[in-house]
Design brief:
The complex is a heterodimer of chains A (286) and B (321).
Chain A (H helix, E strand, L loop, with lengths): L1 H12 L8 H28 L2 H9 L2 H34 L5 H8 L1 H4 L2 H12 L4 H6 L10 H26 L2 H9 L4 H30 L2 H7 L9 H10 L3 H35 L1
Helix pairs in contact in A: 2-14, 4-9, 4-11, 7-9, 7-12, 9-11, 9-12, 10-11, 11-14, 13-14
Chain B lengths: L1 H5 L4 E8 L3 H19 L3 E8 L1 H9 L6 E3 L3 H9 L12 H4 L2 E10 L9 H4 L6 E2 L7 H16 L5 H13 L8 H9 L6 E5 H11 L4 E4 L4 E5 L2 E3 L1 H7 L2 H10 L3 H9 L3 E2 L2 H6 L9 E3 H5 L2 H9 L4 H9 L2
Parallel strand pairs in B: 1-2, 1-3, 5-6, 8-11
Antiparallel strand pairs in B: 3-9, 4-6, 4-7, 4-8, 4-10
Classes of the chains: A mainly alpha (286), B alpha/beta (321).
Amino acid sequence: MSTATVAINAAARAPKRAIPGFGTTLGFSIFYLSLIVLIPLAGVFFRASGLGLDGLWHVLSSPRVLHALSLSFVAAFIAAAINAVFGGIVAWVFVRYEFPGKRLLDAVIDLPFALPTAVAGIALTALYSPNGWIGELLTPLGIKVAYTRLGIVVALTFIGLPFIVRTVEPVLREVEKDLEEAAATLGAARWHTVSRVILPAVMPALVTGFALAFARGVGEYGSVIFIAGNFPNLTEIAPLLITIKLDEFDYQGATAIAAAMLMISFGLLLVINLLQAWARKRGGTQ
Amino acid sequence: MSMAAARADAAELLNASYDVARAVYQDLNLAFIADWKQKTGESLTIDQSHGGSSKQARAVIDGLEADVVSMNNPLDIDAIAKAGLLPLDWQARLPNHSSPSWSPILFIVRKGNPKNIRDWDDLIKPGVQIIIPNPKTSGNGRYSYLAAWQYARSKPGGSDDTAIVFEQKLFANVPVLDTGGRGATTTFAQRELGDVLLTFENEVSLIRGEFGADKFRVVIPSLTVRADNPIALVDKVAAKKNTTKAAQAYLQFHYTRAAQEIFAKNGLRPIDAAVLKAHAAEFPAVNVFDVDQAFGGWPKAQADHFADGASFDKIIAAAHR
């Protein structure tokens, strides 16, 4: 900790940049970002702007669109929150303990990254539908997962898990075990060690993972449409509604929803980033 | 030999088509390539692109260079026409409104028909689950919806008002709205969800082949809809690629006896009466209406029923509350 502060102070005092190539790399970064991200996104706004403000409002204020948007964001939020808790625990176990089959399980965590989302959706639906392995057990209890909102959350939780585990893991590895042992020898209760020593250190990473999983969940299409049931005003997610509008050759309506999703996502990610900066500062001073 | 060598760049056609037409076109393309070679001495390759009908239309509008399109409803070709790639009166350019084959919507029930489903009225009974894909995103769903509507209003005392009530009851019995015909088939056959699947006749043989012939039974309702499968030349693309002649011959070929046989073999009803008769065992008589007669054409049906806020949106809102 103290060495880091020294390094930062030294950098601030340095009259010239020690690392070469700032101008070139910055130029390249901006060019690259524009090409890959900004120009395509600008296209969305350009297309949606053809509607005019009234048209845009007309599309976005329809109950069906509002419902789809709120479903997408709320389901993604819940799934990311579930992952933040349980993904955090998974990361903790991987870092702190040795057990047989650990390498194998470690590789399994990344599967949701690699799996085509449609495959995930089909597999989850097969499991949770009333005649599936898990669905069969839940149906007598009156719990319906496939073709409900719960199913959407399940799919998004599946998709989002590696984001949390993979962002928290390296940070957790950096937190010295000695620190926890020191806390214990100084008489801290176990819960205290977790809440006062470990959590503050991994909080920024946890928030990053949450943001990534959340963002991914909002845009997720492939895995959700299989398990969702896709009923308007009930289980219809915003990306599906965009696809439906496209199938009706309503390009402007589709881009209007897309633009709204972009704005909301951008706003939320900005808030999360600010939160994260705040968490990092707070974690640093303790 | 030397002639053939000189034509190093043999003509290439691209046919953008809908999902389930894959098997048909595998056979039909081979037959046409052989025919074309024999008549003109030119070799030809035909590439296929398959996907949901509306998605394919959108791809062509957005620049997929298809010389020919074959869809499962005329609306999708109309959309391409509106984008200026082919004339608006494309349906008049080939026989039978440019549709060389068709298929009715039928019911598929489970072995032994445990819910005793015989006609549309059995679908709206409480406790019956029906699998229909989303009419907003699939031709299959649109046709099923229109068939139910037409049935309800042609009953004694029926009207558009009773049709709305009928559709509400029908869609209250639909547990999942898959986005496409294929998804609905999977839901019904593999997830074993639902008592009835509403789908095109040509899907039946595919389902039987994939999931076992004895697991399902076909029920032919007393009235159903005729789904034509229209084809068209994409003039702008063909002109640019200089393939108009071959593309036109390819479209004409759809109406030959050989092609009609290929349609019949793949479960699509041929428009050639003699070929249909020869396959009467596979294609039992059905009482069908077509969308032009009953709903004043596809553009009107689309506006009245499937556009944003039109009758389907109202029905689904009322059915799932």
